[in-house]
Amino acid sequence: MTAPIATPLPAPPTAPPPGLIKRLGLWAALAALVAVLLLPTPADLPLAGHYMLAILAFAVIVWMTEALDYSVSAVVIGALMLFLLAYAPSAAKPGVTTAMGTGASLGLALSGFANSAVALVAAACFIASAMTATGLDRRIALTVLSKVGAKTHHIVIGAMIVGFLLSFIVPSTTARVACLMPIMMGFVLAFNVDRKSRFAALLVITTAQTASIWNVGIKTAAAQNMVAIGFIEKQLGAQITWGEWFVAAAPFAALMTVALFFIMTRMMKPEMKEIAGGQETIRKQLQELGPMTMNQWKLLAIVLVLLGFWSTEKVLHSFDTTSTTIAAVALMLFPRIGVMDWKQSQKGFPWGTVVLFAVGISVGSALLQTKAAGWLAQLIVSNLGLQMASAFVILMLLSAFLIVIHLGFASATALASTMIPIVISVLSTVQTPGINIVGMTMILQFVVSFGFILPVNAPQNMIAYGTDTFEARDFVRTGIVITLAAVVLLVVFALTYWPWLGLMVTRA
To answer: What are 437-452's pLDDT values in tens digits?
Structure first.
């Protein structure tokens, strides 16, 4: 009997972190906040910047330890910015010594909500909701998998192709993987394969890692990319189109996908070469969905047109990614033309993610405006000797730093929010002739998505871990090799392809 696709995922095999650990994390964050506040303010750092460094210390510890729910942490951090910065003079007015007050600090705390990237992330969440509401994402996945053979390696390739395709049309990593995992588990159960088999682990881990890889390759595939884009546009006054990002990142992601296949099929070699009756099971599940519905056809048409607008930005038209995406969402919600109403769109809508995203941008913007990011950047540049280092050396050192610090973060969005402003400041501080700050920031944002090692490094990893098909050590040992492969490719691209595109040093 065919297992239903919507089989609920079992609870993770291990209990969540004890409340004691979270409480200790919260106390550590509060202690760090107070400790930094009590330190004497450096002569070259405005008081507002000093307060922002204290808030940054609190935010990093809270996000690393998950002491607070991410949505709750966003509200708490916003409140800290509001009240602490209110007692500091504005860093934008050096001659003024009076406190800026809550009016001005409120503007800083909420500045992220005015960023166009937040609108894009919210719109992307609506698209993900539409895909789920109409079942189009599930149909696409089953259709692709029905075309591959019954050999285990072919099924894995099919899962990777599905992940690649959905990266274009479902701009939410969590939504993509949440859609795919029940399907993969339905296959495992329908094929009568042991949940703890190497084949099940291979299929599930590969699906999650493919999503992470294509977060690098496609600008609209992940929220953390929008964080970087928001800072680049606001602080550097530059725009990176969907096509420019794709040209720079897609070759890297494509080679990483090939490397992923060989790494996973050798390190998690399946017990069997072929699944008996596998294709029949997939086709039966697809038949049970029935023919394409009118809403699915409409959504597919809207998404394909949107993809066309994304890929031809600044080539055939001047509409930016955010504007075209909002227009697409308006069509999806419009009576008779659309595919869902407002009530349907709100089912499971991650408003907490949108708030976290906006507050994260507020933190980064405030770090820049209060001179805190520049002060930290000067320390990093002087201590690491980056003042006149080559673009390649700077890229490698900052990449290594981001890969290591990502081990402590469970959200690439939070990591990008805290680190990209500092990256921009570091790149603005060095005196390397001709360094392309915009291009280097974009490449380092690719590295922010390297959450390959720990299950807790990304929501998609935790969704995969929740299937109870593998042990954490399986994810770690394969993730380390995947990360090493990514670093090797990073070096190769940093020495060849990206310099050819002029992304590291501006060509004369």
So the answer is: 999 999 999 999 998 9
Exposed / middle / buried, residue 268 (Cβ in 10 Å: 0-12, 13-18, 19+): buried
User: How far is it, in rounded angstroms, from Cα 385 to Cα 430?
Assistant: 9
Q: What is the CA radius of gyration of the chain?
A: 23
Q: Do residues 135 and 121 make contact, with C-beta atoms less than 8 angstroms apart? A: no
Residue 8, SS3 per DSSP: coil
Q: CB under 8 Å to 293, separation ≥6 — which residues?
A: 134, 135
Task: Output the pTM of the full model.
Answer: 0.81
**Secondary structure of 29-93 in HEC code, one letter for each residue:** HHHHHHHHHHCCCCCCCCHHHHHHHHHHHHHHHHHHHCCCCHHHHHHHHHHHHHHHHCCCCCCCC
From CA 99, how far away is CA 85, in angstroms rounded? 8
Residue 11 DSSP SS3: coil
- pLDDT at res. 266: 93
pLDDT digits (tens, 9 = 90+) for 212-236: 999 999 999 988 898 899 889 888 8
Q: Quick one: residue 436, left, alpha or beta (phi over 0 = left, psi -120 to 50 = alpha)?
A: beta
- 8 A C-beta contact, residue 414 and residue 420: no
Q: What is the DSSP string of 193-255?
A: --TTSHHHHHHHHHHHHHHHHHHHH-GGG-HHHHHHHHHHHHHH-----HHHHHHHHHHHHHH
DSSP character at residue 317: B
